[in-house]
């Protein structure tokens, strides 16, 4: 079997390539009528089906290039012009008249334009029946009965009954497409003695992809006799377009030889199919079979097409109705999750913290959230490791934002071991951060599917063995389907997509807020530093003056005062000195914030030695032993500032110690650093007086001291504040552990 393809080349059809067969340009018409392709303005005949010779009494070759009026009388031509003026003919076949052509007939004549060509179809009328039923009245009655059904199932059954009542076919089926494009007969009405196909499944290859697509364009397909004699269109290429005639909208369009063979194998003669298109998608077909050849008169066809359109609208209504409570549940959960996300800082808390949680979003048996470095599992799920590995596979192999399957093991080998809990997976990627996902799981559901014939063998070789035929056997073939969950609905998939967008937007908005807050914080830090600098710098001079004049007063006029007066002046001098030390500390602190870090590689052993030397007087005085159990690493840091860090910590360790044998240990640990930090945690430990837990935070406040001015050798209370500032400017953290009476350990890290 061969046809001519788009580029005018021969295309040999068999079942290995029938999903590519150009069925919209079959190059011939069925036998029950004749077709003319005409210039849309001049009405010159460009192409004709060869059977015009028998139908109109003039061979095609004689008609080509002539005006259409050679065949149609002036009234008929008038009717055609009127039709063209009053209705859009583009992609819309319109009934023009019934009458004789070339003294033969009568014919039902319809016309439409497609791709700039006027296509006129004349279908032979069997006999004119003056008592033809009033299809409009019949359809109206059907409608009333259809409207009274409750469920989608009942509705489909009623539709099959009504459709058969009007069309008179032996079998009318409501055929529903599944997600994988296979289909199943969900309702049926039969003439007495006709075999039932109810509940049977048909593989996707039975109605190939391009045939399904064509049904969305042109909802109606009638084949009165599958053994018809094909009548070729001549010439093959349209002289206006230089391409084969596109017959997508023509009702006489020739049928794929594969399909007529399929019908014959089934034992079916006439067939009629009307598409049920819901929201632009092919939801199903109203498929009618007859066991004799049968033409469908124009009025009846119109009635059937009209009823089919109503059925499609009502299916949509029923689907909506059945889904509406589920849709509402999803929408409410969506809103609750978004609201909860806005209240919680972490994604996991946001999705699990409210009354309606992520596992309530869609029907599932388990759920996983991979976010904030956590793997949070709810219900029946694979193990945390399995979930992490699956997420890694999704990230690597399925880069998309959404992934959905009802048979994970078919795509992911590890899925085999998880099918009890995760045959079905619906997953959304939350952010661009690698590995942030929400996954919903469904377990395997083992089902028996009744196929109309073995679906894995939809083809059989012909006796000559040179090409493949559609299967001959439609005997019940049962398949045990494993490794599959209940399928995910379109509603669920689209809702998950919407939730992903909402979460992602929120995460992005939050990140922007944080970065804006950081900018504000940085700015106010800079302002604070410069304020501290100006204040301490400018205070110094008057302070000096107060100190100096107090000293002069004491020296030159001390005798003139009594002892109380002199003591007050001495206090004034002392306070001025103390204030000077404080302003010096403040000045130093503010300089740290304004100074660029001089980052170099430094051996911390050298840095530590320098700090020990700088504090040697105090260490000796207090008799403190410094222990360094193992060498320190080399790190990237500002060496001068790091000396100061060690110096402060060592000085404090020696100072706040009342033990007879005082020691300090300076060391390094390899665990405890966070991502983004250099991989060492440095520490300075002492066996001193310790710090109560309630002061763990306040000791880092500037000028905060826990002791009287003269206790433990005094101090300004700025040392730890400065130390923390240096560590933080290095991108690290400073914290402590302490037990009062036992000792204190200060830890710090440095940023990478
Ligand atoms: P300063 O030592 O000048 O008072 P710091 O900012 O260095 O100021 O320390 C703040 C306070 O924290 C100190 O007054 C002291 O009470 C407490 N402190 C600091 N280091 C230690 C330590 N190693 N052991 C016990 N207490 C400490």
Based on the model shown, name its key terms.
Beta-Lactamase, alpha+beta, 752 residues, elongated, binds adenosine-5'-diphosphate, single chain, 5 domains
Q: How would you describe the overall organization of this protein?
A:
The chain is α+β, with helices and mostly antiparallel strands and 752 residues long. The protein has five domains: 2-124, PAS domain (Beta-Lactamase, 2-Layer Sandwich); 135-227 and 253-322, Beta-Lactamase (2-Layer Sandwich); 359-444, 2-Layer Sandwich (Beta-Lactamase); 508-591, Helix Hairpins (Orthogonal Bundle); 596-748, Heat Shock Protein 90. The protein contains 18 helices and 31 strands. Strands 3-13-5-4-8-7-6 form a seven-stranded antiparallel β-sheet. A six-stranded antiparallel β-sheet has the order 11-10-9-15-14-12. The chain is elongated. The structure holds adenosine-5'-diphosphate.
Helix/strand-derived category reads alpha+beta
Backbone shape: elongated
Strand tally is 31
How many domains is the backbone divided into? 5
Rg over CA atoms, rounded to whole Å, is 44 Å
Q: Which CATH first-tier class of the largest domain would you pick?
A: Alpha Beta
Helical residue percent? 25-40%
What is the straight-line distance between the termini?
71 Å
Report the portion of residues in β strands: 15-25%
What's the number of helices? Answer: 18
Q: CATH H level of the largest domain: which superfamily?
A: GAF domain
Low-confidence region ranges: none
């Amino acid at each position: 079997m061969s046809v001519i393809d788009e580029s005018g080349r021969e295309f040999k059809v068999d079942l290995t390539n029938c999903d590519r067969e150009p069925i919209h340009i079959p190059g011939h018409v069925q036998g029950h009528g004749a077709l003319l392709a005409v210039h849309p303005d001049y009405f010159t005949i460009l192409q004709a089906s060869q059977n015009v010779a028998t139908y109109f009494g003039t061979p095609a070759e004689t008609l080509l290039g002539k005006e259409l009026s050679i065949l149609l009388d002036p009234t008929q031509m008038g009717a055609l012009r009127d039709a063209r003026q009053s209705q859009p003919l583009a992609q819309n076949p319109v009934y023009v008249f019934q009458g004789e052509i070339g003294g033969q007939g009568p014919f039902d004549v319809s016309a439409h334009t497609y791709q700039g060509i006027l296509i006129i179809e004349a279908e032979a009328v069997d006999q004119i029946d003056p008592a033809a039923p009033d299809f409009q009245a019949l359809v109206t009655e059907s409608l009333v009965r259809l409207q009274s059904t409750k469920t989608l199932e009942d509705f489909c059954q009623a539709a099959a009954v009504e459709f058969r009542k009007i069309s008179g076919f032996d079998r009318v089926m409501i055929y529903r497409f599944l997600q994988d494009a296979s289909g199943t007969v969900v309702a049926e009405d039969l003439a007495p003695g006709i075999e039932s196909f109810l509940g049977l499944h048909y593989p996707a290859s039975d109605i190939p992809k391009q045939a399904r697509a064509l049904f969305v364009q042109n909802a109606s397909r009638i084949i009165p006799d599958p053994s018809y004699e094909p009548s070729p269109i001549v010439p093959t290429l349209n002289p206006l377009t230089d391409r084969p005639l596109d017959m997508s909208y023509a009702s006489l369009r020739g049928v794929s030889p594969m399909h007529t063979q399929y019908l014959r194998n089934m034992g079916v003669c006439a067939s009629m199919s009307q598409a049920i298109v819901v929201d632009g998608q092919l939801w199903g077909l109203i498929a009618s079979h007859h066991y004799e050849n049968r033409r469908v008169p124009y009025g009846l066809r119109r009635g059937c097409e009209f009823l089919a359109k109503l059925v499609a609208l009502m299916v949509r209504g029923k689907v909506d109705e059945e889904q509406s409570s589920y849709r509402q549940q999803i929408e409410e959960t969506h809103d609750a999750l978004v609201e909860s996300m806005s209240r919680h800082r972490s994604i996991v808390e946001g999705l699990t913290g409210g009354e309606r949680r992520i596992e309530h979003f869609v029907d599932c048996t388990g759920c996983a959230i991979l976010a904030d470095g956590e793997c949070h599992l709810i219900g029946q799920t694979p193990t945390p490791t399995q979930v992490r590995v699956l997420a890694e596979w999704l990230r690597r192999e399925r880069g998309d934002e959404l992934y959905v399957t009802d048979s994970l093991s078919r795509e992911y080998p590890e899925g085999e071991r998880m099918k009890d809990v995760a045959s079905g997976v619906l997953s959304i990627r939350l952010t661009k951060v690698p590995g942030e996902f929400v996954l919903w799981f469904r377990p395997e559901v083992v089902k028996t599917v009744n196929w109309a014939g073995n679906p894995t063998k939809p083809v059989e070789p012909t006796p000559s063995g040179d090409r493949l035929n559609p299967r001959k056997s439609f005997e019940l073939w049962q398949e045990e389907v494993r490794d599959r969950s209940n399928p995910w609905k379109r509603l669920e998939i689209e809702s998950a997509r919407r939730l992903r967008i909402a979460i992602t937007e929120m995460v992005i908005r939050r990140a922007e807020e944080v970065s804006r807050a950081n900018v504000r914080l940085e700015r106010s830090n800079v302002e604070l530093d410069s304020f501290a600098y100006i204040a301490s710098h400018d205070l110094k001079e008057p302070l000096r003056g107060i100190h100096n004049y107090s000293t002069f007063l004491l020296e030159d006029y001390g005798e003139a005062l009594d002892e109380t007066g002199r003591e007050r002046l001495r206090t004034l001098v002392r306070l001025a000195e103390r204030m000077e030390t404080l302003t010096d500390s403040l000045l130093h602190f503010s300089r740290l914030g304004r100074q660029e870090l001089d980052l170099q590689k430094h051996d911390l052993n050298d840095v530590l030695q320098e700090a020990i030397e700088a504090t040697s007087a105090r260490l000796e005085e207090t008799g403190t032993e410094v222990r360094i159990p193992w060498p320190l690493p080399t790190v990237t840091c500002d060496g001068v500032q790091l000396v100061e860090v060690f110096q402060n910590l060592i000085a404090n360790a020696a100072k706040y110690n009342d033990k007879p044998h005082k020691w300090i240990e300076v060391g390094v640990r390899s665990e405890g650093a966070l991502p983004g930090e250099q991989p060492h945690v440095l520490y300075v430990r002492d066996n001193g007086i310790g710090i109560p837990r309630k002061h763990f935070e306040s000791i880092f406040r500037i000028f905060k001291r826990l002791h009287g001015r003269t206790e433990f050798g005094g101090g300004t209370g700025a040392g730890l504040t400065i130390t923390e500032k240096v560590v933080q400017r290095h991108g690290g953290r400073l914290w402590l552990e302490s037990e009062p009476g036992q000792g204190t350990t200060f830890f710090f890290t440095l940023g990478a």
